[in-house]
């Protein structure tokens, strides 16, 4: 239960940071990596929380009914030869990769990242 609460707080931090700008995703992720609470996979949790936060923003934007996001997805989908829902998931890769890489850097900077090969950092 504590892990879920921690994940939801991390996702909320990513969502609030994203409200400021996309560049806050790596800032929050680096801070997460530096602080690194006692979770099994902090880098994976940062990537999933960042994608979940952006999924919430995209869903809220699409439910607002302004239609701008839907029109843009339709036009981009026709240019890229992808259906509009596929663009939704492709868009979520951006914060996931930002969260993953920045939290890995934060963990490495904190000296808590150990490779699976057994090499010492």
Summarize the helices and strands and which ones pair or pack.
Blueprint: H1 2-20, H2 24-35, H3 42-63, H4 68-80, H5 84-109
Helix pairs in contact: 1-2, 1-3, 2-3, 2-5, 3-5, 4-5
Describe the overall structure.
The chain has about 120 residues and is an all-alpha fold. It has helices at about 1-20, 25-35, 40-65, 70-80, 85-110. Helix 1 (about 1-20) crosses helix 3 (about 40-65), helix 2 (about 25-35) runs antiparallel to helix 3 and helix 3 (about 40-65) packs antiparallel against helix 5. The longest helix is centred in the last third of the chain and has 26 residues, at about 85-110. The mean pLDDT is about 85.
* Content-based structural category: mainly alpha
Number of helices: 5
Ends apart, CA distance between termini: 32 Å
Number of strands: 0
Which strand-content bin applies to the residues? under 5%
What series of H and E elements makes up the topology? Answer: HHHHH
Q: pLDDT under 50 segments (min length 5)?
A: none
- Summed over residues and divided by their number, the pLDDT gives a mean of 84
Give a quick account of the main beta sheet: strands, pairing sense, barrel closure. none
Number of domains: 1
Q: What is the alpha-carbon Rg in Å?
A: 16 Å
Helicity level: over 70%
Structural shape: elongated
Gist of the model:
The protein has helices spanning 2-20, 24-35, 42-63, 68-80, 84-109. The chain has 121 residues and is mostly helical.
